[in-house]
């Protein structure tokens, strides 16, 4: 256990980084989803108006 801690402190790496990578990807997905939801909520009305205008002109 102490050897793993020393190795981590010296190299800054852990032998098993797969869990951390999965957590990081999960956080990125959550952030992207939050940005998409916020954008739709903020611009949804304007986008709907634009599509309605385009549809009416067709």
TrEMBL record:
Residues passing through the membrane, by range: 25-44
KW Transmembrane (keyword) present: yes
Highest taxon of the lineage: Bacteria
Assigned keywords, A-Z: Membrane, Transmembrane, Transmembrane helix
The name this protein goes by in its record: Flp family type IVb pilin
Source species of the chain: Nocardioides piscis
Organismal lineage: Bacteria, Bacillati, Actinomycetota, Actinomycetes, Propionibacteriales
């Amino acid at each position: 256990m102490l050897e793993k801690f020393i190795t981590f402190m010296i190299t800054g790496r852990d032998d098993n980084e797969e869990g951390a990578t999965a957590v990081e990807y999960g956080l990125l997905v959550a952030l992207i989803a939050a940005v998409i939801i916020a954008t739709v909520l903020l611009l949804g009305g304007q986008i709907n108006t634009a599509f309605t205008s385009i549809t009416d002109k067709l």
